[in-house]
Design brief:
about 50% helix; Cytochrome p450; about 400 residues; alpha+beta; five-stranded mixed sheet; three-stranded antiparallel sheet
């Protein structure tokens, strides 16, 4: 059966204000469909899980059509490291870097997370402030800096610029002005990473960068291209998304007085709040995959070469998986089954780090303040990329 087109542009500002009704329409009437950008969308939870747990059919190399597009100068391309690897190659590399993002490595950072939260809040004090720029991004940047590069990190604006141009990238030939801005930002990123790698070769530190220089997957050191791709991935992957979860947390705590009161009285319920928040309004909406083996889904034949948008945000609102999915329910029994961090072999390596960053920040905020209010004069402005959705700015008052 021919794959039908879904004519609505999912990236439009109108849709991004609230994409979930559109996802529901797609699940109900166009569970497999072709989007305006030519990608095939997969929206039902059953099909989304099937795609994510079968990399032999839906390859993670799909992301390379964007990160290594033909129009990008070779020195500005990125392999995206383990994000785009399949099978044994992915397993061998992931096993070596996984230890940096689990267990004791994260526990050691908790006192630092707490002190950084307190430091930023001390600087802000009580009253109204722009939460995304003044707290969320600097807080996440400081933690990533400590973990990945022992504090020798770029500014928040530099990291965001690099994320922004990559997320706005396209496999198709873009306008010349975008090419110019893309290459300018990535060349600046290259200079930073090249200098960082050279410095760590001379002066090792207790950070992920130094340990990447020393790992030997398949008995060979990472090439400079692999090192740049790995560092770029680790520096950026949790920066935008985790900051956006914190902003969403403020919005929900402002609107849900009963939940705010519950968490004040029982801070041990903060992890439950985080999981339901990730399910109902997480920042990652799509994961990209490339079909490498013929497959049939919902009566539609997908052939090798098709690029698929696996819409995890739709699966997280699928009533077949989550009854009454549009309701925020902190007591939801299966909330941890959300797909915000992916599924299967490619489940997000930084999920524990992100959960811990969010939990610690919320613990301190709930200890310090009696009320969280979001001062919204107009609609919240949402910013979207190929794969994510987030809040551009959010005025918050803590009292």
């Amino acid at each position: 059966m021919e794959i039908p087109y879904y004519e609505t542009d999912l990236g439009s500002p109108f849709v991004q204000r609230n994409p979930y009704p559109f996802y529901a329409e797609m699940r109900n009437h166009y569970p497999i469909c072709r989007l305006t950008d030519g990608q095939v969308a997969i929206t039902r939870s059953e099909d989304v899980i099937f795609a994510l747990k079968n990399p032999s059919i839906f390859s993670s190399k799909g992301i390379k059509i964007v990160s290594e597009a033909a129009w990008i100068e070779p020195e500005c391309q990125r392999s995206m490291y383990i994000l785009s690897q399949d099978a044994e190659l992915h397993a061998s590399h992931r096993s070596l870097v996984n230890r940096e993002f689990v267990g004791d490595s994260i526990k050691k950072l908790i006192p630092f997370m707490r002190s950084e939260t307190e430091r930023f809040l001390d600087g802000i004090g009580s009253g109204s402030f722009e939460f995304v720029e003044l707290f969320a991004y600097p807080y996440i940047r400081s933690i990533i800096g400590r973990l990945i590069v022992a504090d020798d990190i770029q500014t928040s604006d530099q990291i965001r610029q690099a994320i922004h141009v990559r997320e706005k990238s396209t496999p198709f030939d873009p306008p010349e002005d975008f090419k110019a801005s893309y290459h300018a930002v990535m060349e600046e990123q290259n200079d930073y990473l090249k200098n960082l790698i050279a410095e760590r070769r001379k002066c090792p530190k207790d950070d992920v960068t130094t340990r990447l220089l020393n790992i030997r997957p398949n008995n060979a050191a990472l090439s400079d291209y692999e090192l740049k791709s790995a560092l770029d991935l680790f520096l950026s992957a949790g920066f935008h998304t985790t900051a956006q979860v914190l902003a969403s947390a403020m919005l929900y705590l402002s609107n849900l007085d009963d939940v705010f009161s519950l968490l004040k009285a029982q801070p041990d319920r903060i992890p439950d709040f985080i999981e339901e928040l990730l399910r109902i309004d997480g920042p990652t909406h799509r994961l990209l995959r490339t079909v490498v083996s013929p497959v049939e889904l919902n009566g539609h034949s997908l052939q090798p070469g098709e690029v698929c948008s696996v819409i995890v945000a739709s699966a997280n609102h699928d009533p077949a998986l989550f009854p009454d999915p549009d309701k925020f329910d902190i007591d939801r029994q299966n909330k941890k089954r959300h797909l915000e961090f992916g599924y299967g072999d490619h489940v997000c390596i930084g999920s524990l780090l992100a959960r811990t960053e969010i939990r610690v920040a919320l613990e301190v905020i709930l200890e310090r303040y009696k009320k969280v209010e979001c001062r919204i004069q107009h609609d919240v402005e949402w910013v979207s990329t190929v794969t994510t959705r987030g809040i551009r700015a959010l005025n918050v008052q803590l009292s």
